[in-house]
Amino acid sequence: MTTYHVLGPLAVRDGGTDHTPRGPKIGKVLALLLLRAGEVVSVRTLAEELWDERPPRTAVTTIRTHVYHLRKALDATEDGAGALRTEPTGYRLSHLPGPFDAHHFTRATDRGHALLRRDSPAEAATVLRTALGMWRGSALAGIDPGPVLTRHVEHLEELRVRALELRIEADMALGRHRQLVPELRGLVAAHPLNEWFHARLIDALHRSGRRSDALRAYGAVRGLLDRELGLEPSADLQRVQQEVLTSGRTPVVAAS
């Protein structure tokens, strides 16, 4: 069975055989068609992705050539025959020609979210870990995305952060505060302006019996927000700080 991957380097695999198209432009065309499967991707959109606002005179011919090679490659796979259709204004994958990691990830994240809302944090954490395990690096790593794919990459990376937030919420509901502290420190370093991650770090430190460390973490994010944005901490952060100061217990704020 042929599988398609964008959660990391673009890859097309059939068992142990690599069928990833060679060449940066043909890779962009395939990625765009996969991410918009079922929709018509216009020639104009493909030209914008491949050459931004300066397409060459041969743009239409070049796109046709890329599509021709892609069609031949897809038609040679088990499920891809006839999938790539020519439409009046562009091209369309009428169906996904094989399992696609971005769709599996999105469905698993939605399932994990639903389980969490049904008060099944253990099962939710397992499902969300599996979803996050589908990532093999940054979305479309190795491709220099044009303006259209850039928007898709940003969307996928936002979904990844969302899945992380949900999995952390599930783990905190299971009382795994000590285990989460190192991961949360890494996440606030990688996403310094994500106040939700900071709030969960402060909460995890406090619930691990590290009250002074929790207060230092609050002071650090407060200073960062003031320097970078001229803002006070969010209501969520202030609420968590208040809990530390009063040694009370409040529910973990959901990543909704």
UniProtKB/TrEMBL annotation:
Sequence intervals crossing the membrane: none
PROSITE patterns listed in its UniProt record: OMPR_PHOB (PS51755)
Residues covered by the OmpR/PhoB-type domain: 1-95
Signal sequence extent: none
Annotated DNA-binding residue span(s): 1-95
Keywords associated with the record: DNA-binding, Transcription, Transcription regulation
Superkingdom of origin organism: Bacteria
InterPro entries named among the record's database cross-references: AfsR-DnrI-RedD_regulator, BTAD, OmpR/PhoB-type_DNA-bd, Sig_transdc_resp-reg_C-effctor, TPR-like_helical_dom_sf, WH-like_DNA-bd_sf
Pfam family, one: BTAD
Coiled coil: none
Homology family: Belongs to the AfsR/DnrI/RedD regulatory family.
Record's protein name: AfsR/SARP family transcriptional regulator
Species this protein is from: Pseudonocardia aurantiaca
